[in-house]
Every structure is written in structure tokens, then in C-alpha cells.
Amino acid sequence: MRELFATRRSEDPFQKSEISVWNATLDRLKQHDILNIDSEIKNAFISLKLSYDLLSTENAKTCFLLCSLFPKGALISLERLAQYLVALRMFSDTDTIDTIENARNSVRITVDILKSSFLLLNGNDKSTNA
Q1: On the CB side of 49, how many CA atoms lie within 13 Å of its CA?
Q2: Is residue 109 part of a domain?
Q3: What does each C-alpha distance from 89 to 36, 63, 94, 103, 114 come to in angstroms?
Q4: Where in the sequence is the domain holding 76, given as residue range(s)?
Q5: For 100-127, what is each residue's pLDDT tens digit?
Q6: Is the model's pTM score more than 0.70?
Q7: How far apart are CA 65 and CA 91, in angstroms?
Q8: Which of 7, 43, 71, 104 is such that its CA lies 20 to 30 A from the CA of 130?
Q9: Which long-range contacts (CB under 8 A, 24 or more apart) does 67-72 make?
Q10: Whether residues 69 and 103 fall in one domain
Q11: CB contact at 8 A, 8 and 15
Q12: What angle do CA 26, 115, 80 make, to 5 degrees?
């Protein structure tokens, strides 16, 4: 069974936030009124959208979108993820990635952001490391 990566994001946007941040976030949630969708699915979508919007880097958003193309429960290796992201030139820092090891390191950092945001689960397979 998969378990969530249990550490908190180090840069939680709601820690010690001013009321204006909370109000702006509430306004963003209210703007996503989806018609004719079950309320449970609608609430899940709104939460997912907010989590996505609050990701700290464009690389994390890109990596999340790429991972969402895989079937539910798929084990995605860091190696495969690095190859896709570099080959498709999807990382914003692609020009600075000159070795596959740099790509792997960038993917590891990005995957850690997604795990700590609870948008990606640990895999069961040792080769995934994702």
C-alpha cells in the first residue's frame, strides 16, 4: 500500500500569513464554480487546483502535469521522468542541464516538492524512488 510522504512543505504559504492572503485564496476558490458535477468531485478538484497553483516552482507544475499523464497507480522511475522532461525540454532550467546526473538531481528536487505538497505518492518499487 502506498503511503504519503509525511514531511511538511518548508515554504507553507499559509504559515504566519496575513488575512489578505487568506481572503485572496478564498476568492480564488469561489471563482471555480463547476456546473453539473458531483459535489465531492467538485471539492476534490478545487483542492487539487489550489495545491497546484501554490506549487513553488514552474518545474514542479510541469512535472506534476507530466505525471498525471501516466495511468493511476503507475510506478514512474526517476530515470524515466528525467529522460522525458529533458527530451521534451519541459524544465525551465533545461539549458543549464548538461548531464543526465544534473537532470536526475533536478527531478529529485522537483519530486520532493510534489511529495511534500501531497501531490505525489511514494512508489512501492525501489527503482522508482518517486
Answers
A1: 15
A2: yes
A3: 37, 12, 6, 11, 19
A4: 58-130
A5: 888 888 899 999 999 999 899 887 655 5
A6: no
A7: 12
A8: 43
A9: 67/114, 67/120
A10: yes
A11: no
A12: 125
